[in-house]
Write a structure and sequence with these properties.
The structure is a homodimer. The first copy, chain A, has helices at about 5-10, 15-25, 30-45, 50-55, 75-90, 100-115, 130-140, 160-175, 190-205, 225-235, 250-260, 290-305; strands at about 60-65, 90-95, 120, 145, 155-160, 180-185, 215, 240-245, 270, 285-290, 315-320, 320-325. Chain A is α/β, with parallel strands linked by helices. In chain A, helix 7 (about 130-140) links the parallel strand 3 and strand 4 (about 145). The radius of gyration of chain A is 26 Å and the shape is elongated. The model of chain A has no long low-confidence stretch (mean pLDDT about 95). The structure holds a DNA duplex (16 and 16 nucleotides).
Chain lengths: ~325, ~325
DNA sequence: TTGTATGCGTTATCAA
DNA sequence: TTGATAACGCATACAA
């Protein structure tokens, strides 16, 4: 297996503490000793056991990141932001994907706590679930930051203004002359979905428009659900003139269905998504969300809390979303 | 901070070993003691310190995964495959993205070794680099599996038949009547890119076709590079009739450039990519690569080696790639 | 059925 | 300048 400090001590004929001291660049060792230790370490490929080190030093140089779905570009970008900041600090990231399952989220969070990560970043399910596992985190004084506000808890978090993003989108459609607008919601446990839907309904109401329940499609999870929605729309007699999708991935599914059926967007349906993902050739009007920045921000806030002993104010940051107009919406 | 077994022993008035025994479900404790321990553990939110446990038990229940780029769907799928299998075994995954930088790859691999992961899965740079860090892994008898064969090393690996995939693609274009075919290579350190390019050139030669150096574009990394290639093609007088891109992301860039210029694919250029990514609305002919299966396979092979004491044969698996014909190639 | 002692690999404290 | 020893939190072997 791996060579240890004790092995090195035996090899060099020095004491463990001496070897340790040299390896950690402490002052007060002769050049001769220093060289002897370094040479032996190099020769035998010594790699310090971080896990034993973590036992004493109180820092494991590891943070945990719990997201919902690693294959979604949204969480991809957040992950990259977190990773980049973590690497700057010489930290490694435990990545877990909950698959939008509360039980899994709790289990994975506990696994990270068991591994004594120095801190945690969590993108938790936010609707229709309990938050005991997160309250517990605060009780244990484990540094953490969340994507989205946790009800009943004062903690560091970063959130997106999904309500406002949705209001922009809806107004945009109305200004383009749309009156019959449909909506595809995301997971029931997603607050983003809830707020986008609410912003949509509120704006319709303010503008004096009505929403037909038949034009609302619920709980789309994957691209395939988007395809399904698209096909149902194609078969529908009283089709809406425009559709807002919970995210770009769902919108992609709708696009695929329409293209397969030989229909056109925006000719036969105007379409808007959320996330403004880069991997999109279709000129989809969408809402840009600063996911990468959010990831970096979450990590920065977390590291501040890990390193600063003084319990400063909790950071609670709302990032705005920005409508990006392309050509998937027709003027009526 | 976190509560320990010693704390629990003090609270219950029992010995550490008793508490430990009950917590680990060992037989031979009275119901009364058992209940007392469990209750106290529950009440104080005891989570075993896996890192201390790992010091004795020789298993950290952690594996490391080093990939090249987390935002690329290719590595996304591999990561998901690895994660799924790891979770089945109750393992957590350290995820590192090397950003296609050899120094970073070495550093991150060493960090994982330092954290004493039970095993490693690596998607290393395979061309124009040294493999000392991987040889070292074998010398230390740390279980690992790689994506792609490591020169000069007998180890577990899974690879894709990129050469054959490229031959399929090239033949497809030739059968559709294309004679002037361009190619966009990926990173210089990518063996997949090298083999795809080689398969392409060999097939051209066999079919008696020639390759113009002006139609080869080198080292495309991101979507933006694809856009760049697209724009250069648009400005080119003697444009190839077809273009093979290292991967779908690059192809997306080319598509974006052509659409922005009001040109059509396949009208003005036939296009083929690799990876067959799901998040694609454009009907791009591409090569399907079983990335998710490869991730699962790599993890399965790794766990076999972690758990089996007997040094069995090394597994060396080549997965084939499959051309998926859509409508981005014009019949000439 | 429960308690004591020891070791895992490292760092820190103190003594030599 | 170097060495011996304790401590971190847990598991295990052994003793009571």
């Amino acid at each position: 297996m791996n060579i240890t400090i004790a092995d090195l001590a035996r090899i060099t004929g020095l004491a463990k503490s001496t070897v340790s001291g040299v390896l950690n660049n402490k002052a007060g060792f002769s050049e001769k000793t220093r060289a002897k230790v370094l040479e032996a370490a190099e020769k035998h490929g010594y790699v310090p056991n971080e896990i034993a080190r973590g036992l004493t030093s109180k820092f494991t140089k590891t943070i945990g990141l719990v997201i919902k779905d690693i294959t979604n570009p949204f969480y991809n970008r957040i992950t990259k932001g977190v990773q980049d900041v973590a690497n700057e600090h010489g930290y490694t990231v435990f990545l877990c994907s909950s698959g939008e399952n509360h039980m899994v989220e709790v289990a994975q969070m506990n696994a990270m706590v068991g591994k004594r990560v120095d801190g945690l970043i969590i993108a938790p399910l936010l609707e229709g679930v309990t938050f005991d596992h997160i309250y517990e985190l605060k009780r244990k004084e484990i540094p953490f930051a969340t994507l989205g506000e946790i009800p009943g808890l004062t903690c560091d978090y970063v959130e997106f203004d999904d309500y406002q993003g949705s209001v922009q989108v809806t107004n945009h459609l109305i200004e383009y002359g749309h009156a019959k607008i449909g909506f595809v919601t995301g997971q029931r446990t997603s607050r983003a979905s809830k707020q986008r839907f609410q912003g949509f309904k509120d704006t319709l109401f303010e503008r004096g428009l009505t929403l037909s329940e038949r034009h609302v499609f619920h709980e789309a999870k994957h691209l395939a659900d988007g395809v399904d929605v698209g096909n149902r729309l194609i078969a529908m007699e009283d089709r809406p003139t425009a559709l807002i999708c919970f995210d770009d991935v769902i919108a992609m599914g709708v696009i695929k269905a329409f293209e397969a059926a030989g229909l056109s967007i925006p000719g036969d349906l105007s379409l808007i998504g959320f996330d403004d993902i880069e991997l999109m050739t279709f000129p989809l009007t969408s809402v840009s969300i600063p996911t990468y920045e959010a990831g970096k921000l979450l990590a920065k806030i977390l590291f501040e809390r890990i390193f600063e002993e003084n319990v400063s104010e909790y950071k609670q940051i709302t990032l705005s979303e920005q409508l990006v107009v392309r050509s998937s919406v027709k003027r009526m």
